[in-house]
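Predict structure. Chain length: 298.
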Amino acid sequence: MAIPESRKKKLQMLLRSIPPGNVTTADRMGPREGRDAELPARRAREPISLRKACPGSVKSIQFGGRKAKFYLVRRPLAEVSPDSLPVERQYASVMRGARQNFDELSASPAMCCAANAGPEDLLFFDTETCGLAGSAVFLVGLMFYADGRLIFEQYLARDYAEEAAILAAFARRYRQAGVLVTFNGKAFDMTLIRERSAFHGIRLPDPEPPHLDLLHESRRRWRQAVPNCRLQTLEAHFCGRRRVGDIPGADIPDAYHDFVRTSDAARMRDILHHNLLDLLTLAELLCAILTGCEPAHQ
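Prediction complete.
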């Protein structure tokens, strides 16, 4: 029996709607089974809004005669990771001199500046970028101690045009810092910040605050004691923490480009969490240096 022309057209439209490779599977399904099976996948593809994935607020900043917006996520450690509150107490205690144990004569000038500062004077800093050196900055992560708590502030550019706003916000906060603390920040983060700030006409403080780069300090003290001085290696040896499900650093630029393109913030939540862990590890490494800790055997 010949198939009516109208039915042929319906079948052709149905086949075009099935992704390649799924035709055989779809043929075996009954009509209701096919629709029900697609529902979980369809829900999984629904984009997650930025406010839902990373609760925060839109902020405005004035610079260079213009006004620009960016996205701010501000959280205390107690909200981010209640189990990590001992780090907060240890940091405050060490920075007040309760358990400092290091040789100032052999320490770098930046380390001496940090050791002599109060817990409120240090600004921990880490960036996430769109690629290698010279690329745009899309996230500035900061951690500082205020009112008896470790506070995280993350300045996020929701698209490429908001880079200038997050750099201006960082420049304003940077002027208040007593000591800047980074990991490889001398070679990468601050070099990039200066380049991108100059590009946008944003002025950084001059002179800049002392800069303590914990990568250099870690190599000086533990080069022979650990397999390497990557941040997560040191994290495992000194913090007893191994990350599970953390987004690899190499995947972060592509994840951000996807967010700009689709507005799906699911992976932005992973990026901000990765950034927070890096900042928290900096505080723990600083305490380890000031108290003379040696790496645990893994």
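Summary: The chain is about 50% helix and 15% strand.
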